[in-house]
Amino acid sequence: MLALSVSAAFAAESLDTQTVKEFRLPEYDEKGNLKSETLGDYAKVKPDGVTEITNLKMNMYKDGQVEASVTAPNCTLDPNGGRAGSEGPVRISRENMVITGEGFYWSKSKERIQIFKNVKVVLKDVRSLDAGVKK
User: Fold this and answer.
1) Distance, CA of 70 to chain centre
2) CA distances (Å), 90 to each of 15, 29, 57, 62, 85, in order?
3) Which domains can be identified in the chain, with CATH numbers?
4) DSSP labels for 49-87?
5) Contact 37, 68 (CB under 8 A)
6) How many CA atoms lie within 13 A of 36 on its CB side?
7) How confident is the model at residue 125, as a pLDDT?
8) CA dist 21 to 18, 55, 66, 72, 87, Å?
9) Among residues 2, 20, 68, 123, which is most buried (max CB within 10 A)?
10) pTM
11) Nearest to 93 by CA among 123, 63, 116
């Protein structure tokens, strides 16, 4: 279930596109728990729903807590198609990992994010991860 909420009024940019300040698109599961939310400082929403977002932040939730965050300066979101992407820089952060790179594609149906180039993975607190591994 997707719902669109905005904390600022729509500003008419043209007859075809609307600009939204403080964009927020939450997604809830069948029990009403927040699964994910897509945020942006600004969004240009086209009549077909395709949205150009400035300063994207996508949060994925598990048990009410942020499990992972994706940030990018710019992003094109197709909420009806369940996909998003950008050619610019991207950063994915999780509790013990940060992944950065350039260009990404996100598929909601596959629950997958692909980064295209200059990918860098930084693991945090690797020793605590190794503690549970038998050698």
Assistant:
1) 5
2) 31, 26, 10, 22, 10
3) 5-131 (2.60.450.10)
4) S-EEEEEEEEEEEETTEEEEEEEEEEEEEETTTTEEEEE
5) no
6) 14
7) 81
8) 10, 11, 23, 17, 23
9) 20
10) 0.78
11) 123
